[in-house]
Every structure is written in structure tokens, then in C-alpha cells.
Here is the input.
Amino acid sequence: MKFGRSERGKPPVEPVTLKILVAGGFGVGKTTMVGAVSEIRPLRTEELLTEAGRPVDDISGVEDKHTTTVAMDFGRITLREDLVLYLFGTPGQERFWFMWDELTEGALGAVVLADTRRLEDCFAAVDYFERRSIPFVVGVNCFEGADRYPADAVRQALDLDEGVPLVLCDARDRESVKDVLIAVVEHAMEFTANRRQAVST
Here is the structure.
């Protein structure tokens, strides 16, 4: 294969890039989700939790957590030769939320990752994307040892609109994460088509 040319002698394809955010509360599995599916070594900005952070970092329910994302996680997955997905994991703690506006710039959509042990921690992310009309899906991360609830019960607890997809997932499992990302892309496409139709009528 010659440099800068494809095997068939055609010029290399310039891929379309899509940006998806992975958001949610502290310790919900955002870094794990990005790492599970990224084809490159994920960029992580994690720091150790310290005694100084105890008053603001509530680790109840996630006592085994020792690090936290302070800026973002970044990963990449190639869906096709001409389609590449960039994943940006947002920081979960409130003191880092000022970064969300920058990270959402140009995003196709988002995953709001939820933990049924601390369901209230994802309310802020749900509210954030609803207020900005950014399409999102809720991925319920099924942790080992956590109680399992029917999807309808979780949807009701989060007071989600009927049009917001909710999927059960395992943030450690590549295939499970891919299913969530496919759901985001499909929902974003439908969301955009519906808005265009509403504007034209």
C-alpha cells in the first residue's frame, strides 16, 4: 500500500467525525465506559481523591473509588472507514461543571450514565441536556451487587420524557457500550429530523 493512497488506488476517505458526551454523576462509570470501547488508549485526566476533597466528594455507595476525573476523558472508535466517533467523558462533580459548556460544543448527543444506587446524581445531567435541547439517552450501568429495577421504574423515577431512550448496560463491556452509542446516534438522527419537520410546518 502506497502512502496516502488506499489499496484500491483511490484517494483516502476523509471521515465524518461525530462527537458524543458521556455524562452523569460522580463514580457512575464514565471513565470505564470510554475506556471499554475506545480503539486508542484513552486520554484520562484523573487525580487521586484526597482528604481535602471529602467535604465535597460524596463517595457513599462508591467507597472503593480512589480517583476522579478533573477535566475529561477522551476516546475514539471507528464505526466505518468514513465515520469516526469521538467520546468525551465529562467530570461528575459539581465544581467541574463549568467545563460542560465547552465539551458540549458541536456534540451530536450524549449518554447520561445512571447508577440505581445513586440515581439522584444523574438528575443534573438530565436537566442540563433537556434545557439545551441536546438529544441524549440514559444508560443504566448495572453494577455488581446493585439492585436491579425494570426500565420503566427507572424511567419513572427520573421523570424522563417518553421520547428519551433508556437502556440497561455494563460500562465495562465493549459490546454493551457499543449498543448504547448506537442508541445515541439513532436517537440524535430522529431528534434532528423531528425538529426540522417542526420548523418546516
Observations:
- The mean pLDDT is 82.
- The beta strands are 16-24, 43-48, 67-80, 83-89, 109-114, 136-141, 166-169.
